[in-house]
Design goal:
By secondary structure, this protein is an alpha+beta fold. About 25% of the residues lie in helices and about 20% in strands.
């Protein structure tokens, strides 16, 4: 390997390479397009859910992260965009929180919408939208396990899953020093 100018940082990698029959690699543009695409917007039961797509689009459009390929993929699928929602405040994505938070108004209603890594958002949730129940039902251990199975199935299929969580925010907006408000 040294004669071929190969540096191996992990000795076990040599054994792994020696045990291989077929090695497949991909140069971007050959098999992939280096473009993110939204494959589906689903609810916690795994069925298509337009409400999830609408909430994701509001977060993507009003979250202040222009040029983000994930946001662009979401907005490309949601022809309604933010659907008449207006920006009140947002907390941009950061790698510690692993989520983007947007406070928006839609008519008289004020919504806090969070989009990010499912494993970071699910532990924060206390309710789950079941069918058309907009207020949601208590998030039981059974619901949580079902959602985790769904997430694992999607990961096994090679799909990256983002979670969308939301709640109404009644009353006056209290500004957090971490939220950026619109003027």
């Amino acid at each position: 390997m040294a004669r071929r100018k190969v540096i191996v940082k992990r000795l076990a990698a040599i054994h792994d390479l020696g045990a291989m029959d077929v090695l497949c690699t991909d140069k971007t543009g050959t098999l992939t397009e280096a473009r993110i695409r939204l494959s589906a917007a689903i609810g916690p039961n795994g069925a298509a859910d337009t409400h999830v797509l609408e909430l994701a689009a509001i977060n993507s459009a009003l979250g202040g992260s222009s040029g983000n390929p994930i946001d662009e993929a979401i907005l490309a699928e949601c022809t309604g965009g933010p659907g008449g929602s207006t920006h009140v405040a947002d907390m941009p994505f950061d790698f510690e929180r692993r989520r983007t938070t947007v406070l928006a108004t839609r008519g008289p209603q004020r919504l806090l919408i969070v989009k990010g890594a499912a494993e970071a958002i699910l532990p924060l949730c206390t309710k789950v939208a079941v069918g058309a129940a907009e207020a949601g039902a208590a998030l039981t251990d059974e619901h949580r396990q079902s959602i985790e199975r769904l997430l694992n199935d999607k990961a096994d299929q090679g799909e990256r899953v983002l979670a969308i969580a939301w709640r109404p925010m009644p009353g006056a907006v209290r500004r957090s020093p971490r939220l950026t408000s619109s003027s």
